[in-house]
Design goal:
- The complex is a heterodimer.
- By secondary structure, chain A is mainly beta.
- Helix content of chain A is 0%, strand content 57%.
- Chain A is built from no helices and 11 strands.
- The chains are: A mainly beta, B mainly beta.
Protein backbone atom coordinates (compact mmCIF):
# COMPACT_ATOMS: atom_id res chain seq x y z
CA UNK A 1 0.00 0.00 0.00
CA UNK A 2 0.99 3.60 -0.26
CA UNK A 3 3.28 5.05 2.37
CA UNK A 4 4.29 8.60 3.01
CA UNK A 5 7.51 9.60 4.71
CA UNK A 6 8.06 12.96 6.34
CA UNK A 7 11.27 14.82 7.06
CA UNK A 8 12.56 16.19 9.28
CA UNK A 9 11.09 14.51 12.36
CA UNK A 10 11.80 17.57 14.50
CA UNK A 11 12.59 21.19 13.71
CA UNK A 12 13.47 23.88 16.21
CA UNK A 13 13.54 27.46 14.97
CA UNK A 14 13.89 30.95 16.31
CA UNK A 15 10.73 33.02 16.02
CA UNK A 16 10.79 34.81 12.69
CA UNK A 17 12.75 32.10 10.87
CA UNK A 18 11.22 30.07 8.07
CA UNK A 19 10.25 26.39 8.35
CA UNK A 20 9.72 23.67 5.76
CA UNK A 21 8.54 20.09 6.11
CA UNK A 22 8.64 17.56 3.30
CA UNK A 23 6.44 14.61 2.49
CA UNK A 24 7.63 11.88 0.10
CA UNK A 25 6.09 8.79 -1.41
CA UNK A 26 7.48 6.02 -3.61
CA UNK A 27 4.15 5.83 -5.43
CA UNK A 28 2.06 8.42 -7.21
CA UNK A 29 -0.49 9.98 -4.90
CA UNK A 30 -3.96 10.99 -6.02
CA UNK A 31 -4.09 13.69 -3.37
CA UNK A 32 -2.25 15.04 -0.35
CA UNK A 33 -3.71 16.57 2.77
CA UNK A 34 -1.94 18.53 5.47
CA UNK A 35 -2.98 18.60 9.11
CA UNK A 36 -1.72 20.41 12.20
CA UNK A 37 -1.83 18.86 15.65
CA UNK A 38 -1.14 21.10 18.61
CA UNK A 39 0.44 19.52 21.71
CA UNK A 40 -2.26 17.53 23.48
CA UNK A 41 -4.73 18.19 20.69
CA UNK A 42 -6.10 16.41 17.68
CA UNK A 43 -5.25 16.81 13.98
CA UNK A 44 -6.90 19.79 12.31
CA UNK A 45 -7.28 19.88 8.55
CA UNK A 46 -5.29 22.60 6.79
CA UNK A 47 -5.57 21.92 3.08
CA UNK A 48 -5.84 19.37 0.28
CA UNK A 49 -3.86 19.37 -2.98
CA UNK A 50 -4.87 17.22 -5.93
CA UNK A 51 -3.24 18.63 -9.08
CA UNK A 52 0.29 18.06 -10.31
CA UNK A 53 2.44 21.07 -9.48
CA UNK A 54 -0.32 22.69 -7.45
CA UNK A 55 0.62 25.52 -5.09
CA UNK A 56 -1.74 26.94 -2.48
CA UNK A 57 -1.18 29.65 0.08
CA UNK A 58 -2.81 30.37 3.41
CA UNK A 59 -1.36 33.57 4.86
CA UNK A 60 2.19 32.59 5.86
CA UNK A 61 1.76 28.94 4.83
CA UNK A 62 2.62 27.71 1.32
CA UNK A 63 1.72 24.21 0.22
CA UNK A 64 3.12 22.50 -2.88
CA UNK A 65 2.36 19.24 -4.66
CA UNK A 66 5.17 17.93 -6.83
CA UNK A 67 4.94 17.57 -10.57
CA UNK A 68 5.15 13.78 -10.32
CA UNK A 69 2.63 13.78 -7.43
CA UNK A 70 5.09 11.87 -5.28
CA UNK A 71 6.10 14.62 -2.92
CA UNK A 72 4.72 17.67 -1.19
CA UNK A 73 5.97 20.42 1.05
CA UNK A 74 4.66 22.87 3.60
CA UNK A 75 6.57 26.09 4.07
CA UNK A 76 5.92 28.58 6.84
CA UNK A 77 7.35 32.07 6.45
CA UNK A 78 8.43 34.01 9.52
CA UNK A 79 7.32 31.50 12.14
CA UNK A 80 5.39 32.60 15.19
CA UNK A 81 4.99 30.86 18.55
CA UNK A 82 1.44 30.00 17.53
CA UNK A 83 2.85 27.77 14.78
CA UNK A 84 4.14 25.18 17.27
CA UNK A 85 2.78 21.70 16.81
CA UNK A 86 3.16 18.63 14.65
CA UNK A 87 2.41 18.88 10.95
CA UNK A 88 1.21 15.73 9.24
CA UNK A 89 0.79 14.95 5.60
CA UNK A 90 -1.61 12.27 4.52
CA UNK A 91 -3.12 10.78 1.39
CA UNK A 92 -6.47 9.12 0.82
CA UNK A 93 -7.11 6.28 -1.60
CA UNK A 94 -10.49 4.56 -1.81
CA UNK A 95 -11.42 5.94 1.58
CA UNK A 96 -8.29 4.70 3.33
CA UNK A 97 -5.95 7.43 4.58
CA UNK A 98 -2.25 7.02 5.17
CA UNK A 99 -0.38 9.56 7.28
CA UNK A 100 3.27 10.32 7.75
CA UNK A 101 4.73 10.45 11.24
CA UNK A 102 4.78 14.22 11.19
CA UNK A 103 7.29 17.00 11.72
CA UNK A 104 7.22 18.56 15.16
CA UNK A 105 7.96 22.26 15.13
CA UNK A 106 9.08 24.17 18.17
CA UNK A 107 9.57 27.93 18.09
CA UNK A 108 11.82 29.83 20.45
CA UNK A 109 10.50 33.34 21.19
CA UNK B 1 -21.80 23.91 15.05
CA UNK B 2 -20.74 20.92 17.09
CA UNK B 3 -17.66 19.04 16.04
CA UNK B 4 -16.83 15.36 16.37
CA UNK B 5 -17.12 14.16 19.94
CA UNK B 6 -15.64 11.06 21.53
CA UNK B 7 -16.21 9.38 24.85
CA UNK B 8 -14.73 8.59 27.17
CA UNK B 9 -11.78 10.95 26.81
CA UNK B 10 -9.65 8.72 29.01
CA UNK B 11 -9.99 5.04 29.76
CA UNK B 12 -7.87 2.86 32.00
CA UNK B 13 -8.42 -0.84 31.61
CA UNK B 14 -6.89 -3.88 33.20
CA UNK B 15 -5.33 -6.33 30.80
CA UNK B 16 -8.02 -8.71 29.59
CA UNK B 17 -10.93 -6.30 30.00
CA UNK B 18 -13.21 -5.32 27.15
CA UNK B 19 -13.61 -1.64 26.27
CA UNK B 20 -16.00 0.32 24.09
CA UNK B 21 -15.12 3.69 22.62
CA UNK B 22 -17.81 5.96 21.22
CA UNK B 23 -17.70 8.46 18.39
CA UNK B 24 -20.39 11.02 17.54
CA UNK B 25 -19.60 12.42 14.08
CA UNK B 26 -20.66 15.74 12.67
CA UNK B 27 -24.30 15.54 11.67
CA UNK B 28 -24.72 14.69 8.02
CA UNK B 29 -21.18 13.43 7.48
CA UNK B 30 -21.34 10.27 5.42
CA UNK B 31 -17.85 8.96 6.09
CA UNK B 32 -16.41 7.96 9.44
CA UNK B 33 -12.91 6.79 10.20
CA UNK B 34 -11.13 5.26 13.18
CA UNK B 35 -7.41 5.68 13.75
CA UNK B 36 -4.90 4.55 16.35
CA UNK B 37 -2.19 7.05 17.24
CA UNK B 38 0.84 6.02 19.23
CA UNK B 39 3.01 8.64 20.89
CA UNK B 40 5.20 10.44 18.39
CA UNK B 41 3.57 8.85 15.37
CA UNK B 42 0.95 9.74 12.84
CA UNK B 43 -2.58 8.34 12.93
CA UNK B 44 -2.73 4.72 11.76
CA UNK B 45 -5.85 3.78 9.81
CA UNK B 46 -8.06 1.18 11.47
CA UNK B 47 -11.38 1.19 9.62
CA UNK B 48 -13.73 3.27 7.47
CA UNK B 49 -17.51 3.52 7.18
CA UNK B 50 -19.66 5.08 4.56
CA UNK B 51 -23.04 5.51 6.23
CA UNK B 52 -23.62 2.18 8.00
CA UNK B 53 -21.47 0.14 5.65
CA UNK B 54 -17.98 -0.77 6.83
CA UNK B 55 -16.07 -0.48 3.56
CA UNK B 56 -12.56 -1.14 4.80
CA UNK B 57 -11.40 -2.78 8.00
CA UNK B 58 -7.95 -3.73 6.81
CA UNK B 59 -6.25 -1.70 9.53
CA UNK B 60 -7.79 -3.47 12.49
CA UNK B 61 -4.80 -5.10 14.25
CA UNK B 62 -6.54 -8.31 15.26
CA UNK B 63 -9.90 -9.98 15.60
CA UNK B 64 -10.11 -8.48 19.09
CA UNK B 65 -10.98 -5.18 17.43
CA UNK B 66 -14.49 -4.62 16.18
CA UNK B 67 -16.23 -1.47 14.94
CA UNK B 68 -19.83 -0.75 14.10
CA UNK B 69 -22.01 2.10 12.92
CA UNK B 70 -25.46 0.51 12.84
CA UNK B 71 -27.55 3.56 11.94
CA UNK B 72 -24.97 5.44 9.92
CA UNK B 73 -24.31 7.99 12.64
CA UNK B 74 -22.74 7.10 16.00
CA UNK B 75 -19.94 4.56 15.86
CA UNK B 76 -18.44 2.31 18.49
CA UNK B 77 -14.97 0.77 18.48
CA UNK B 78 -14.80 -2.26 20.72
CA UNK B 79 -11.63 -3.92 21.87
CA UNK B 80 -11.94 -7.30 23.50
CA UNK B 81 -9.45 -8.79 25.96
CA UNK B 82 -7.28 -5.67 25.93
CA UNK B 83 -3.51 -6.05 25.85
CA UNK B 84 -0.82 -3.58 26.86
CA UNK B 85 0.08 -2.98 23.22
CA UNK B 86 -3.44 -1.62 22.70
CA UNK B 87 -2.51 1.45 24.76
CA UNK B 88 -2.77 4.46 22.44
CA UNK B 89 -4.99 7.38 21.52
CA UNK B 90 -7.94 6.31 19.40
CA UNK B 91 -9.08 9.03 17.04
CA UNK B 92 -12.35 9.21 15.21
CA UNK B 93 -12.85 11.45 12.19
CA UNK B 94 -15.83 12.22 10.01
CA UNK B 95 -15.95 13.63 6.53
CA UNK B 96 -18.37 14.95 3.96
CA UNK B 97 -17.85 13.73 0.42
CA UNK B 98 -14.41 15.31 0.02
CA UNK B 99 -11.24 14.03 1.71
CA UNK B 100 -11.20 16.70 4.42
CA UNK B 101 -11.48 14.91 7.74
CA UNK B 102 -12.68 16.44 10.98
CA UNK B 103 -11.07 14.74 13.93
CA UNK B 104 -12.49 14.29 17.39
CA UNK B 105 -10.45 14.88 20.56
CA UNK B 106 -9.60 11.19 20.85
CA UNK B 107 -9.83 8.61 23.61
CA UNK B 108 -6.59 7.88 25.44
CA UNK B 109 -6.62 4.19 26.35
CA UNK B 110 -4.18 2.89 28.93
CA UNK B 111 -4.04 -0.84 29.52
CA UNK B 112 -2.37 -1.88 32.76
Amino acid sequence: GQQVMQIPQYQHVQEGEDFTTYCNSSTTLSNIQWYKQRPGGHPVFLIQLVKSGEVKKQKRLTFQFGEAKKNSSLHITATQTTDVGTYFCGSTNAGKSTFGDGTTLTVKP
Amino acid sequence: GAGVSQSPRYKVAKRGQDVALRCDPISGHVSLFWYQQALGQGPEFLTYFQNEAQLDKSGLPSDRFFAERPEGSVSTLKIQRTQQEDSAVYLCASSPVRNEQFFGPGTRLTVL
